[in-house]
Task: inverse folding
DNA sequence: CTTATGACCTGATAGC
DNA sequence: TGCTATCAGGTCATAA
């Protein structure tokens, strides 16, 4: 579900509620959504078995029980709650994950399936500006369970192990760094943008939107990209992500922020979800097809050979 | 090494 | 109404 703008919107909402809060308790309703630092889950797994989070109880302190929430941060599509103790709880939302907050005595945004997919619940008090500091609950909800929580004992483990290999955050991506990390091969430029080792935060929606704005064909090989083309792509990636954050992200169906509010940026999509429609710039019928195994929409005129080469 | 492919899950929707 | 097929915002391991 969420790409960088949606995760950033969630981060900001969650921070308003829990920054400085004391975590009074944690309930793990589904153990298998939590991977600890002993599980090589999160970029280091080399076998299928190793991906499975270790069974057994997770010590509540590892999920910040008794701790204070010192910061709520984000890199790419990953969120992290950092405790005063230094412990880190990384939250991956995957395709359908949500973090939701409710004030004391308040109900959570309701799901059609009730609370069946509310996998982890934190209780907190004295936190945040929002809710009058009355405290409340923070919930990790994820019906498809492509997301999960990944724990690190400290920032060194977070950055050196969990996030080793993660590319620079897309919101501040510079052209030179993007070109270098994407490399030069037959690989499609869209595939490179979706690779979190190249660039952290871009997913299927914003890859298509940024490439349309940059007038670069999604299947154009990275080998054929020159400095000017990369500069346009880097600039449009930053631009579209920034605009989307200001609009509260893109809600296609499920996405909401931590208070259940939908984002407004889907209205501004120029290509994503518009295959068969007219290009907003030139009127040509937008094409749709699979690129990098993901549904992709582009304008054959604006992003054709002429557009792709400037 | 790089790149492609299928797997992992559940829910919403479209079509019959 | 109810069944089935298709699709979905993202990674992961493994095959090629």
Result:
């Amino acid at each position: 579900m969420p790409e960088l703008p949606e995760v950033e919107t969630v981060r900001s909402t969650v921070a308003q509620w829990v920054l400085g809060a004391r975590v009074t308790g944690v309930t793990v309703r589904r153990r298998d959504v939590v991977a600890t630092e002993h599980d090589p889950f999160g970029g280091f797994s080399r076998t299928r078995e190793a991906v499975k989070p270790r069974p057994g109880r997770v010590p509540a302190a590892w999920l910040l029980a008794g701790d204070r929430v010192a910061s709520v941060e984000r890199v790419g599509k990953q969120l992290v709650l950092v405790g005063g103790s230094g412990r880190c709880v990384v939250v991956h939302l995957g395709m359908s994950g949500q973090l939701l907050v409710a004030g004391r005595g308040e109900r959570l945004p309701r799901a059609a399936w009730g609370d069946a997919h509310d996998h982890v619940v934190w209780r907190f008090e004295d936190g945040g500006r929002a809710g009058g500091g009355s405290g409340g609950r923070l919930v990790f909800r994820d019906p498809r369970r492509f997301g999960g929580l990944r724990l690190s004992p400290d920032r060194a483990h977070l950055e050196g192990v969990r996030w080793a290999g993660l590319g620079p955050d897309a919101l501040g991506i510079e052209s030179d760094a993007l070109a270098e990390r994407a490399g030069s091969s037959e690989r499609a430029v869209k595939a490179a943008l979706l690779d979190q080792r190249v660039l952290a935060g871009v997913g299927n929606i914003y890859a298509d939107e940024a490439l349309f704005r940059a007038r670069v064909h999604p299947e154009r090989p990275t080998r054929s990209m020159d400095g000017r083309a990369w500069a346009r792509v880097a600039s449009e990636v930053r631009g579209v992500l920034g605009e989307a954050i200001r609009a509260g992200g893109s809600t296609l169906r499920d996405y909401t922020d931590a208070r259940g509010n939908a984002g407004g940026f889907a209205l501004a999509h120029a290509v994503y979800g518009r295959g068969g429609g007219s290009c907003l710039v030139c009127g040509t019928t937008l094409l749709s097809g699979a690129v990098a195994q993901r549904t992709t929409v582009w304008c054959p005129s604006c992003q054709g050979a002429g557009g792709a080469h400037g």
User: Anything to note?
Assistant: Residues 1-3, 6, 43, 45-48, 51, 77, 92-96, 144, 146-147, 194, 196, 203-206, 250, 252-255, 272, 294-295 of chain A lie near DNA strand C (CB under 10 Å from a C1'). The longest helix of chain A spans residues 227-246. The longest strand of chain A covers residues 118-125.
